Amino acid sequence: MATPIEDDKTPARRKILTAARTLFTTAGYASTTIKAIATEAGVAVQTVYFVFGNKRSVLAALLDVSIAGDDEPIATLDRPWVAAAVAEPDPMAQLRIQVHAARLILDRVAPVLLAVRAAAGADAEVAQLWQTTCEHHETVLRHLMTALAGKVDGLDVDRCVDVGLALQSPETHALLIDERGWSATDYDGWVVGALAAAAGIGNRI
C-alpha cells in the first residue's frame, strides 16, 4: 500500500534528494524514473510530484543543494567563504581560501554534474541546466579572480578564469581524487599552485 503524501515537504524532500543522488549518479538520469526515485526514497510516487513536480526539478534542486551544502536560500556570491576570500589582502591566502571552498563544493557536486553532463546530449532541458550551472561557476570564479587582480598587478583575469575552470572541473576532480587517489590536500595544493602561476604571483613574491 502506497504511503500518503506528507503534509510537511521537508522530510520528504530530503529523502527524495538523497534517493535521486544515488540513482542519478549510478543508473544515470535518463534511466531513472520518478517511480524509481519514490521507491528508493520510501515515499509514494505522488509525494515526489507533490514536492517537486517533475524529474527535471528534482535534478535542479539536487544541484542547488549539492553546490550550497544546505537548503538556505543564499546565493554562492553571498556565502561567507566568498566574502572572506575577497577581503583577504594576501593573494596567496585568497587562493587558498577559494580553492579549499571550491573543492568542498566539488566533493559534493562533482558526481551530480557528471550525471548532468552525460544526460545533456539527449535532453534539451538538462542541457540548459548544464549550461546554466557552467555559467554560474564562471561567474563566481570571475568575481574571485577580479578581486585577486586588485591585489596582483598585471593579472590576466580571463586567463585565470580559464585555468580555474579547467582545474576545478568535475572531470578533473573525479580523475585525480576518485580515480588516481589524490588526497584533498594534494589536490588543493596543486590547484593553488597552478592558479598562482597563471596569475604570476610567484614572480612577485
TrEMBL record:
Membrane-spanning ranges: none
One GO MF term attached to the UniProt entry: transcription cis-regulatory region binding
Domain HTH tetR-type: 10-70
SUPFAM superfamilies linked: Homeodomain-like
Entry keyword Flavoprotein: no
DNA-binding region coordinates: 33-52
Keywords per UniProt: DNA-binding, Transcription, Transcription regulation
PROSITE patterns per record: HTH_TETR_2
Keyword DNA-binding: yes
PANTHER family the record matches: HTH-TYPE TRANSCRIPTIONAL REGULATOR BETI, HTH-TYPE TRANSCRIPTIONAL REGULATOR RUTR
Listed name of the protein: DNA-binding transcriptional regulator, AcrR family
